[in-house]
Every structure is written in C-alpha cells, then in structure tokens.
C-alpha cells in the first residue's frame, strides 16, 4: 500500500487520540503498541473484507486447515512487512522518538501451540495468504497458552500464560457466526418424511462455539485470509449451573490438559470435538449460502486434518451430510473422502491418538454410531481382498479403542508425511497395512518455514547483506538465494557475514545476561538446541557432549570456546523430560561457576522457549543441534530456520536433516550416528548393550557416572533416573551408541571453526540452499497435489 511517513504519523496520532483520548507521547508503550496495531488492522480491513467477498463471488475453492495448535508469533512486524509498509512505519516511529524494539516487544506471543506442529500450521496460513490461496485456519482460542515456563532451583515450573490479559488487538469476535456443539445425551434414529431415518437427540449438553477471526495478511498481494479460533461459552438462555458453566469454560481454557487421568482425557476429547464440529458446521453453513447440492462440496471445499486431533472430522462431516443433508451413506462417504486429507506428523506411538470406545460413545453418541458403521463397512469391503488379520490390525475400531490415525487415513483421499524419510517410514511401519490397501493416497510433503519471519524480520543484518549481494528478489522468492553461492570466494562478503552473525550474537548475549546473569563471550561458538523436550530428541546427548568438553577442559585441553544455548518446554506430566531439564540447569551451574571454564565453556538454558524467543536465538546460532535418534523425528523445522540463518547443522540422518544435507552439501554440516536401518537392525537383533558401550569407553563411563557421583550438584534423584534409563532399561534412544560419533562430529566443527573463512563458506552454503524450504513452496505443492487449489500469486521457482 502507498503510505508516506507523514501520512502514517498523522494516522497514528489520530488513532491514539481516538482510542485513548490522549496524545501519543502521553501513552504507555503498551498503549502505543495497541494504537499502532489497531491502525494496522484498519489498514488491511478493506482488503480482508474484499478477499472474502472475492472468494465468494468467484466461488473459489477454499482450504480449511484444522489444527489443535497454532503458533502465529507476534503479528505486528510481520503484518507491516507483508503490507509493504514496515520501513515507512519504522521511519515514522523513529521520527516520533519511539523505541521500536520496545514497541514490538509489547505484543503478547499467543502460545496456542506446543512446538513444530503448531508453528508449521501458522507458517502454512502465512504462506497460503502469500501465495494467494484461499486458505483458512480452524482451531481453538485457548484462554491460556500452553504455559509460561519458569525455572526454580533448576526445576521447570509451569505458570498460567495469561496471554489475553491485555486485549488481543488482532482478533475479531464474530458472535453472528456462533454455532452450537452438542455433547453427550442419547440419540436414536426415527423414520422421517423422506422415507429415511433421522436422529433424535435427548438430554444433550450444548455448548456455544463463538469464533474469533484473525487476519492472515498476504505478502504484497492485497489478499487477507482468516484464522478462525473457537471459544466455548454457555448457550444464552439455557439455565446452566455453576458447575456446568465451568465445565464449558474448561473446554477452551488450556492446550493439552494433563491426560494422565480419565478426566483429563475426556477434556481433550471434548476439545477435539468442539473445534472440529464447530469448524465443519460453519463450513457447511457457509457453503449452503451459495450451493444447494452437497455433492459438489469437494469442488469448493478442502478440509485438512493436521495430525490426529481433528481426525473425527471424518465422522462429523459424515454426520452433517447424513443427518442434516439427508444424503445416503454411500453419497456422504464419497464426498467426505474427497473433501478430507490428512497429514501425519509423528511416528511416536504415544502421539497417535486412540480413544476408549466407552468414553467416545458417551461424549459423542451419534459420532460413535457413525464410527461403528465406518468400521463395519471397512471390514466388510476389504477383508475379502486383504484378509481378516490385516484388517483387524488397521480397522478404525479394535480392542475397545477408536484409532484416530487409521480413521483419518480411511476417511481421506490423501495422506502425507512431512519429510521424505518420514513419508517412507509411514508406508513401511505405522501405516503399512493401510498403505497396502490405499497406496495411491500416500505422498510426501516436506515441511517448510517462513523466511519472511525467520530471516527478514528476525535477522535484518543478514537480510540487508543478502540484498547488497544479490538484490531483493529473494525476499518474495527465496529460491533466488541460490546465486548467493557465487560469493563463496568473496572474502569481503564472508567477513560481512561473520560481522552480521556477531551482531546477532551480541544481542543474544545481552538477553542471556539479562535473564540468567551469565556472561558469555561472543567470540565463542553459539551451539543451539531449541525444541520440545523429549527423550527421542536427545537433549541428553547434547548434555553428554558438554560434559565431555568439560572434562577435557579440566584436563587442560584447549578447545574452541562454546556457548551452549537450550530452549525447551517439557510436557507437565512428562517426568523424564523434566529430569533432563533439571540436569541441563545443574550442568549449567557446574560449568558456568567453574573458573577453569571461564571464556571456554558456558551453558545457557533460556526459559519459556517460543516463537519470539526463537526469533532472538536463531539469528545468533553457529551450530544447529538436530540429533534425534534416526527414524524418530518426523521432519523438524528448527533445522530449516537455523540453516536459513547460516548455522551449520550437527545432525543425524533423520527427518528433514537428510534433505538439508542434500541441499547444502555434506561438507557444510556435520553428520553422525546410526542411520535408520542401522537403528532398526540393532534393535531387532536384541544385541544392543548400553552397558557394554559404557564399559568400553572410559570418557563415556566417566560422563555417565557424573550423573550420580556428586560431580554435578543437586541432581541425585534426576541423575539416578536418567542413568537407570541408560544402563538398566538399556537406553531406548541409543544415546550411548551414538555418543562417540557425536563427539567426533562435534570436533570436526571445532576444527572448522579455527578457519573463519571456511566456516563462513559453510554458513553461506547453508543460506544459499535454504530457499527451497520456504513454506510458500510447500503449500503450493499441497495445493497442487492434495487440495486442488492453485496459487493466485506467482510462487517463484521453488516448486519441484
Ligand atoms: O515431531 C514433529 C516434527 O518433527 C515436525 O517437524 C512437526 C511439524 O511437522 O510435527 C512434530 N509433531 C508433533 O508435534 C506431534 O505430532
């Protein structure tokens, strides 16, 4: 949009007056932020309304991305960037003498997700808008985010994340689009006028689902899409007891309530049905404003099931088509399968949801009836061809449970994994039987990230340097980063790259000092691991690497100086993960307080990792730790963000690390560890002995002993628990098996660090090769292969 600095300043002053009846300079930074955000909302409001009107007018096919998590991050800077007014606005703010970073920092970070799953969902919404695809998000407006993480004596403490305490400027409540979601009660079928059967519901618990819409602003294309988040409220006019009211409010209170007991499980199931049903009902209501014929639904609507949480979309869409639409089972099933698609994001058994039949039937009796029929017909149709055993293994209902991943595959026309290796593993392991039945449904869509946020907004130093070398085309088409590789022998450029990284390290060092009181040297290698805390991701291996270095330093060895930066939340009920957090903090205390380590080794565990903290850490990273046991990490996306900012990946051949290696080249990173087939073989052989490795490697022996021998103070219980997992339970994630090769790979990076030019060359190779991982290309591929929705904005050269 054409906006001059003068016009912006006048608008901003007027907005401040309008909102707060005061002049700008009298407002608090929070009020100034709110005035600016409201102003920006006003700037795109017309485009938002117009985009919706255009979609309706042209009857454009719309994608609805159903996800229990979204992690949009702060929106002010990214909206300004997408509107093409960031420079003008910042110049105006400067003239007004407003502290720009402080203003941006006023914005809350909606913690409506846990990790990669939620961030990917938000990246996709951003990219769909950028590509000019009609894409909508559908999720939950949790009153509290995941949780705010604090460390007390090194332990994780979870505090409520009251992100809605200050009004959230970007959302718009759409009371007129509220729908009712029905839980519980009983249901029976009765003959109706058209000769069919219709369900009669009795004694249901009704909940009002009220949507809050948030604009997803497209990049320089005047297109504005919508993320719709549902909030649970009592139905007006119904007499609800206090207990009922609080049960209703609980539905959209927190993300991932503790499901270690039945009440918690029930709440999760309610959440899933709540946003799935609300989403489907509103899609169909909207569709029916323009179309009589439900058979045409797949021509105009694609609904995407992101992980298993919304998998009951299969049943809910069937319900609406059968009960409200009056279609036959066969008609409804065909429409459902053509409309739905599903992405699997994990091979971890615990994340592939199953629900006890009894609970499911009690909370959603009509859906349960439909599930039984789906199961019955599935068995009947495929048993003759594939045999009863195979069908029993992959049927949607078995052994008293509904198996949501299987239901999602059976009810979708397309199923994808999120990296090449992961998509292959789905076919050969967790979804093997369903792949046998429906091979044509399976495909791969490697994840992507938003370089607009992770490079342009988070790393202006690097962005400007790239502009100076190859012009600005990469900003809208990141595949145009490839020519940057021509500067591989341009020493001046390489030095500038180093300087830009250093500037980001200075900023991160200040945050580390501010938050943890730890002084770190910016001449050190910044070695970063930022992701959910989980045993398979092996933060423990990273800790063991630190302890190996610690022992070497204590031994008088000279190593390049390293600062190890961690960011990770553990699920509140995940005991082992919390023990690892305690361990990392204890190792940090040990190392940071040892005078021998001063200037050589430091550990900084920054609490409350999330999108905004990621924007500070990622530009400053030299090394990206992607060290999951091969065959466990579906894809990873921090690997892509870090690579795009010039970090060298220290990695196993797992998830998207493999594709990063193919893109950047093996010499631009450090690979180590057992491969997926080697892991499988070792496990299958029954020959793995963690104890034997421990006995054979004196350094490793010493490191493992340190968990319990008092060298690391204050971790008696946690150290014992972790040591037992390794030596008594034989090291599920093969930390000991990979230790030696991890250390060697790490030493290789130490050696490279001694040659700053060679290091900068490797960083450059990563940056130049990172463009292909832009989510703009990923969603274009989803559009082409799965949703049948084409980008309206040219997407560039990143497609396959
Ligand atoms: O663990 C995967 C991660 O590897 C992937 O990058 C991300 C997005 O596809 O999804 C994560 N999965 C989950 O969070 C739960 O399935």
From TrEMBL:
Pfam family, one: Phosphorylase
Cofactor(s) named in the record: pyridoxal 5'-phosphate
Top EC class, one word: transferase
EC identifiers of the protein: 2.4.1.1
UniProt keyword list: Allosteric enzyme, Carbohydrate metabolism, Glycosyltransferase, Pyridoxal phosphate, Transferase
The keyword Transferase appears for this protein: yes
Single GO BP term: glycogen catabolic process
GO CC, one annotated term: cytoplasm
Keyword Glycosyltransferase belongs to the record: yes
Catalytic activity field: [(1->4)-alpha-D-glucosyl](n) + phosphate = [(1->4)-alpha-D-glucosyl](n-1) + alpha-D-glucose 1-phosphate
InterPro entries noted in UniProt: Glycg_phsphrylas, Glyco_trans_35
Physiological role: Phosphorylase is an important allosteric enzyme in carbohydrate metabolism. Enzymes from different sources differ in their regulatory mechanisms and in their natural substrates. However, all known phosphorylases share catalytic and structural properties.
PANTHER family reported in the protein's UniProt record: GLYCOGEN PHOSPHORYLASE (PTHR11468), GLYCOGEN PHOSPHORYLASE, LIVER FORM (PTHR11468:SF3)
Name of the protein in its database record: Alpha-1,4 glucan phosphorylase
Native organism taxonomy: Bacteria, Bacillati, Bacillota, Bacilli, Lactobacillales
């Amino acid at each position: 949009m054409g906006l001059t600095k003068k016009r912006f300043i006048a608008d901003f002053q007027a907005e401040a007056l309008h909102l707060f009846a005061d002049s700008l300079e009298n407002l608090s930074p929070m009020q100034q932020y709110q005035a600016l955000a409201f102003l920006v909302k006003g700037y795109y409001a017309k485009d938002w309304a117009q985009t919706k009107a255009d979609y309706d007018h042209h009857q454009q096919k719309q994608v609805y991305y159903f996800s229990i998590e979204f992690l949009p991050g702060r929106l002010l800077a990214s909206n300004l960037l997408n509107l093409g007014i960031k420079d003008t606005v910042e110049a105006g703010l400067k003239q007004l003498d407003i502290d720009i970073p402080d203003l941006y920092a006023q914005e809350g970070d909606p913690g409506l997700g846990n990790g990669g799953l939620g961030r990917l969902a938000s990246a996709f919404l951003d990219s769909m808008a950028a590509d000019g695809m009609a894409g909508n998000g559908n999720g939950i407006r949790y009153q509290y985010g995941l949780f705010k993480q604090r460390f007390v004596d090194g332990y994780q403490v979870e505090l409520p994340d009251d992100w809605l305490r200050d009004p959230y400027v970007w959302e718009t409540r759409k009371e007129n689009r509220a729908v009712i979601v029905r839980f519980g009660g009983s249901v029976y079928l009765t003959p109706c006028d058209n000769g069919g059967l219709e369900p009669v519901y009795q004694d249901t618990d009704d909940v009002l689902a009220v949507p809050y819409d948030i604009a997803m602003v497209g990049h320089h294309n005047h297109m504005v899409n919508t993320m719709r988040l549902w909030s649970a409220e009592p139905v007006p006019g119904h007499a609800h007891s206090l207990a009922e009211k609080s049960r209703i409010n609980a539905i959209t209170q927190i993300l991932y309530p503790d499901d270690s007991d039945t009440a918690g499980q029930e709440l999760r199931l309610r959440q899933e049905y709540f946003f799935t049903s609300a989403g489907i009902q509103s899609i169909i209501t909207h569709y029916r404003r323009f179309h009589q014929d439900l058979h045409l639904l797949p021509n105009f609507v694609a609904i995407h099931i992101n992980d298993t949480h919304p998998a009951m979309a299969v049943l809910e869409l069937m319900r609406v088509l059968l009960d409200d639409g009056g279609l036959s089972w066969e008609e409804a099933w065909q429409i459902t399968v053509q409309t739905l698609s599903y992405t699997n994001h994990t091979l971890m058994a615990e994340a592939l949801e199953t629900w006890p039949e009894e609970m499911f039937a009690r909370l959603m009796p009509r859906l349960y009836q439909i599930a039984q029929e789906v199961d019955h017909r599935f068995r009947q149709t495929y048993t003759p061809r594939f045999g009863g055993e195979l069908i029993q293994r992959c049927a949607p209902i078995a052994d008293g449970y509904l198996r949501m991943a299987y239901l999602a595959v059976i009810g979708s026309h397309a199923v994808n994994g999120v990296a090449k290796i992961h998509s292959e593993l789905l076919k050969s392991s967790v979804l093997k039987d369903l792949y046998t039945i429906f091979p044509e449904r399976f495909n791969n869509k490697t994840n992507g990230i938003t370089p607009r946020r992770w490079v342009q907004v988070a790393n202006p130093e690097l962005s400007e340097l790239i502009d100076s070398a190859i012009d600005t085309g990469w900003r809208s088409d990141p595949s145009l980063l490839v020519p940057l590789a021509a500067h591989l022998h341009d020493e001046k450029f390489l030095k500038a790259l180093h300087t830009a990284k250093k500037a980001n390290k200075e900023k991160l060092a200040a945050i580390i000092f501010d938050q943890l009181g730890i002084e770190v040297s910016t001449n050190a290698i910044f070695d970063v691991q930022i992701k959910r805390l989980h045993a398979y991701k092996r933060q423990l291996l990273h800790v063991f690497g630190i302890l190996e270095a610690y022992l070497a330093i204590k031994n008088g060895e000279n190593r390049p100086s390293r600062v190890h930066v961690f960011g990770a939340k553990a699920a509140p009920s995940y005991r082992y993960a919390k023990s690892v957090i305690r361990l990392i903090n204890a190792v940090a205390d040990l190392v940071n307080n040892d005078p021998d380590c001063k200037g050589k080794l430091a550990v900084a565990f920054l609490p409350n990792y999330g999108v905004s903290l990621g924007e500070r850490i990622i530009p400053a990273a030299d090394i990206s730790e992607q060290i999951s046991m091969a065959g466990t990490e579906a894809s990873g996306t921090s690997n892509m963000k870090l690579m795009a900012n010039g970090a060298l990946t220290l990695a196993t051949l797992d998830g998207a690390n493999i594709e990063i290696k193919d893109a950047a080249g093996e010499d631009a990173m450090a690979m180590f560890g057992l491969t997926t087939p080697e892991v499988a073989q070792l496990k299958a052989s029954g020959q793995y002995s963690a104890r034997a490795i421990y006995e054979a490697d004196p350094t490793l022996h010493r490191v493992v002993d340190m968990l319990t021998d008092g060298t690391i103070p204050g971790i008696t219980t946690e150290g014992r628990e972790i040591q037992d997992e390794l030596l008594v339970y034989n090291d599920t994630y093969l930390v000991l098996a990979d230790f030696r090769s991890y250390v060697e790979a790490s030493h290789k990076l130490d050696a490279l660090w001694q040659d700053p030019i060679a290091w900068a060359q490797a960083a450059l190779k990563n940056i130049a090769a990172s463009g292909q991982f832009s989510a703009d290309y990923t969603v274009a591929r989803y559009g082409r292969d799965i949703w049948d929705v084409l980008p309206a904005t040219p997407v560039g050269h990143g497609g396959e």
